[in-house]
Design goal:
Layout: H1 2-17, E1 24-32, E2 35-44, E3 49-58, E4 64-77, E5 81-93, E6 98-108, E7 116-125, E8 127-137
Antiparallel strand pairs: 1-2, 1-8, 2-3, 3-4, 4-5, 5-6, 6-7, 7-8
Length: 138
C-alpha cells in the first residue's frame, strides 16, 4: 500500500510540479483530523474556476494529507469578501491510508487582509472530518 501512495505522490509532483511557477502558492494550517500545516498552490482555469492542490503534515495517526480539487466563485459577502465553493479529493496518508471527497467554503480577504483566506468544510473519509484552516498567499 505504501508503494502505491509513493507512486501517486510522485506522479502528482511530476505532472503538476512543472506548472507551479504559474500558480499562486500559499501556506495553510489549521484543523484537519488534527493540527495540520502545509503548502498549497492554485491556478485560475477560467473566470470563475480555479485548480488547487497541496500537501499537509498532520498531528493525527495519519501524518500526511494530500488534496486536489477545484474552487468556484459564489458571491461576495458584504461586497468586500469573495466567497468560493471548493471540492475535490483528499487522501490521508499513513498506516491506514484512506481517500475520499471534500467540500468547503473559502472566504478570501479574511480579517480584511488581502492575501489571507479562511476555509471551512468537511472531509468525507470513512466518516465526516472537520476542516477549519487559515491560509496566506505569498
Amino acid at each position: 500500500m505504501s508503494r502505491n501512495i509513493f507512486i501517486a505522490v510522485a506522479l502528482l509532483v511530476l505532472l503538476l510540479g512543472s506548472e507551479c511557477l504559474a500558480y499562486k502558492p500559499a501556506v495553510i494550517g489549521g484543523i484537519r483530523d488534527g493540527m495540520a500545516l502545509g503548502i498549497m498552490a492554485e491556478n485560475g482555469l477560467t473566470n470563475g474556476a480555479t485548480l488547487r492542490y497541496g500537501f499537509e503534515a498532520n498531528t493525527s495517526n495519519t501524518p500526511g494529507i494530500i488534496f486536489i480539487g477545484g474552487k468556484w466563485f459564489l458571491s461576495s459577502v458584504s461586497s468586500r469578501f469573495p466567497m468560493y465553493l471548493s471540492g475535490g479529493l483528499v487522501g490521508y496518508l499513513g498506516n491506514n491510508s484512506t481517500a475520499g471527497p471534500y467540500i468547503s467554503l473559502i472566504f478570501e480577504r479574511f480579517l480584511d487582509v488581502t492575501p489571507l483566506f479562511l476555509e471551512v468544510g468537511i472531509d468525507v473519509v470513512h466518516s465526516g472530518r472537520l476542516q477549519f484552516q487559515v491560509g496566506y498567499f505569498f
